[in-house]
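Protein modeling request. Please complete all fields; requests missing the sequence field cannot be processed.
Requester role: graduate student
Desired output: 3D structure, token encoding
Chains: 1
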Amino acid sequence: MRHLALTSAFAALVAGMAHADTYRPECFAPAPDTVTIQYDAKDGPYQLAFVNGFAGNDWRIQAIQSAKAWAARPENAGKIAEFTVVSVGNDSAAQLAAIDNYIAAG
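Delivered output (106 residues):
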């Protein structure tokens, strides 16, 4: 019964939120002087890299495991030639360098 009550309470909360006037599109608009870059879509397979700054806490570990699980899903795996995870520690310059290296490598 407790499970049913929690499920009903959650459903009521979600239904109430669906009608709430909380979405404000102006909050997601770019600044007036923003330049947008857009490229033509390319067909896969793709090379993906997840460059992580630090893997010493539960959230980061969960993020890495979730990314690996997503890449392994059958509907995604066929489109991915290579999926690499790199953790560089607490050095933001090393994280930027790792990202730059992947971009430079194509």
